[in-house]
Design a protein that fits this description.
The structure is a homodimer. By secondary structure, the first copy, chain A, is of the alpha/beta class. The first copy, chain A, contains 13 helices and 17 strands. The first copy, chain A, folds into three domains: 6-138 and 319-338, Rossmann fold; 143-316, Dihydrodipicolinate Reductase, domain 2 (2-Layer Sandwich); 363-444, ACT domain (Alpha-Beta Plaits), CATH 3.30.70.260. The longest helix of chain A has 21 residues, at 16-36.
């Protein structure tokens, strides 16, 4: 396969994204060939059914129902995996890597579950696994983090990486609507799945932010170590109060390099980086660029120690945006074959031996807390006393007007405090007789 | 130099940016080495004077006053050029390329003036010229356009690529201040040069947008073909009226693929792309992400036919942001040496034989026009008649309140029209006896 001027692609998966890749490569193949000096062609596509519905046509002559025909065809130099899931997709990817064939995948769930095993297989067979499309669709964040910012330590990464959640939160704010109603409409319009848990509970964002955190910090971040909160609990009241306070609520994937605790408990990284890796709804100040990322758009804010603050914005999903990312990998894979530089930029370099994910209890944040309290004197004193004992300072306390009845909202904005203290205080506050519903807590990010 | 695990860098220029690169590489060299599998070291730096002021120290042991010692040293594998200017810098870059040494430059003026000659020299000597730092500082836009979006046709590029202009426009809007006052303060604070013309007249932005346009469209865009307007003529009145209309004024570098004119006049690209390449102040709708890019920050909005809308944001200048971009090129150059893949991604691929820059007269835009008119009946009729004869439709016409006296402002928002028609109409309007100052015209962009 050395110095091939013509590189053949085999694709597994010919549905929505697969047909998008086929279409884009067909449309721009001459352009890509002139830019790369290498011609790339999709010669074989394994599909579920010849006549499955697809937005762009794929000629029946290149289709097969047998994925092994794609992987094993000696004329196929590069394999694209677009079937999704973590079982059969893993078998397919490993089969191709074992033949020394570079693999391109858009499968974030697969990487999140089996990344190290797949990267090891690629390395062992002197080939590469490319995954630009697995995080944030058309935004070229993998290549940016891996190559463009290679001279940086990654101090902070904040990502709006789930389009469904961002769409729902955008509409909740715009329309003053409640989560359940917007979700129902989003499902009707095709912006959310019938079973929405993967998106709205934050798991999809956790897959992506885990991949980014691993790449940025050089040690593999396991999904089980990522603290994940979704957006189901956000109410229109929270969005309304956040707006009044000058904030927009976004679901953020967060990767923060933190100082290793000096002899503190659970110090897992005595000589290396400790990194907070989390997904949770966050109050973002309205002046910050992330606050204006709306609808299904994604954006990733990256702070490097050399480059400072940067942001990358675009469509995080969809057949065309994903196809653009796949074509970027196709180009790299084809060039690496052409120049025999298969390991020029490995999939993943585990360069941080002592890296560890910070336990969420140790993470420090500012907090927005909404309480439903009995409208009687003394409640604020009780709440303040609990927070005082927990050494948590109140930055501001608001009793919003226009709420009448026995039970009224009370909003507290807290200065920075460890989550261990905050969660204990919230439990105690929730047990006060005057507090009539579980406290609602959302973290506040000032990007300092 | 094949398979070198240790790559030595020689740097020409040890002032602000040079010391930034030295510092960043020193700080993160172990990290880069573990990520790349190659160790990079700066072994020699040519400086103007050993004791010139620099924000970070460079050890005297690596300094020389003779740039040829850097280029000709057999131990130097890669040369970084950071001296600026277009004369001696050209000699230096060519000297290194002729020795087959890859060159990294941050010099946009040099590329704008002599790009094709330098790229040809790199190609002829089987090496490469890297220039990530030449456009938009720390934003990795060169690599994004060249590699990450390689599968796209570039339909639109809009760049805020001059930090000085963006800083001035941001302060003018925030403070309701006039250009001259903010410029003076910006000069005092070091955000603008004593001789500000390169920035405020749009030439620096033209250098950068010319490089981006060339890379995106595959034919070399000469500076003389770029229509350039700066920001000197923008008044606080214009910013105030734009704000009232829901717009923010930004200096944009614009690259638009346009339909080749069907037998039209000046059709220079019968079979190829015609591209508008311009720099001018633009009314950007406040809801658009570019409107919220403030202060010295840069951002580039790229619309690809596959990926859709994307945006890249960060610091466009400064020793540290620029150093990050230089280190990205250092990594690519070192990897290319290590893997003997010197031409893997050439500096510039001239793939569009029929490309041409659209004459500005043929460009179509919407327009904001501010007139200073005598406050008497009949003026609007005269202005409307001229526009009607030029076949330019008025979208809205506003006589702002609160302006008293003999001469008052009149604001017109125009539907899309060719600039040839608009400029003729503006000349005719300017000659009306009731119009007391040259008409102020700013283009309006709706990003459709």
């Amino acid at each position: 396969m050395k110095k091939a001027n013509r590189v053949n692609i085999g694709m597994i998966g010919g549905g929505t994204v697969g047909s998008g890749v086929f279409h884009a490569l067909q449309k721009n193949s001459a352009l890509m060939a002139s830019r790369l000096g290498v011609t790339v062609n999709i010669v074989k596509v394994a599909v579920k059914a010849f006549d499955e519905p697809r937005p762009y046509p794929i000629p029946p002559s290149v289709m097969t129902l047998n994925w092994q025909e794609v992987v094993n065809d000696p004329a196929v130099h590069i394999v694209i995996e677009l079937v999704g899931g973590t079982t059969i997709a893993k078998t397919m990817v490993l089969a191709a890597l074992k033949l020394g064939k570079p693999v391109i995948t858009a499968n974030k769930a697969l990487l999140a579950a089996h990344g190290p095993e797949l990267f090891a297989a690629a390395s062992q067979h002197n080939t590469n696994l490319y995954y630009e499309a697995s995080v944030a669709g058309g935004i070229p964040i993998i290549k940016v983090v891996r190559e463009s910012l290679v001279g940086n330590q990654f101090e902070r990464i904040y990502g709006i990486v789930n389009g469904t959640c961002n769409y729902i939160l955008t509409r909740m704010k715009r329309e003053g609507a409640d989560f359940a109603d917007v979700l129902k409409d989003a499902q009707r319009l095709g912006y959310a799945e019938a079973e929405p848990s993967l998106d709205v509970d934050g798991h999809d964002a956790a897959h992506k932010i885990g991949i980014l955190a691993s790449l940025a910090h050089g040690f593999w971040v396991n999904q089980k170590d990522i603290h994940v909160e979704g957006i189901r609990a956000i109410t229109k009241l929270d969005i309304q109060f956040a707006t009044q306070l000058g904030y927009t609520i976004k679901l953020l994937g967060i990767v923060k390099k933190v100082a290793a605790p000096a002899g503190g408990r659970k110090a897992q990284a005595p000589n290396g980086a400790q990194v907070q890796v989390s997904v949770y709804p966050t109050l973002v100040p309205d002046g910050h660029v992330l606050a204006s990322v709306n609808d299904v758009f994604n954006a990733i804010f990256v702070r490097g120690d050399v480059v400072g603050d940067t942001l990358y914005y675009g469509r995080g999903a969809g057949k065309d945006a994903t196809a653009s990312a796949v074509l970027s990998d196709v180009a790299d894979a084809a060039l690496d074959l052409h120049h025999s530089s298969e390991n020029r930029v490995p999939s993943f370099v585990p360069h941080e031996r002592h890296g560890a994910v910070q336990p969420i209890e140790d993470s420090v944040a500012k907090y927005y807390v909404r309480l439903s309290v009995v409208d009687k004197p003394g409640v604020i004193a009780q709440v303040s006393a609990i927070l005082g004992r927990a050494k948590i300072s109140i930055a501001s306390l608001i009793q919003p007007e226009g709420h009448e009845g026995d039970v009224v909202p009370l909003i507290l904005m807290m200065h920075a405090a460890p989550y261990s203290a905050m969660s204990r205080a919230l439990r105690a506050i929730g047990q006060l007789p005057a507090v009539k519903a579980p406290p609602m807590m959302i973290r506040v990010e000032d990007f300092a």
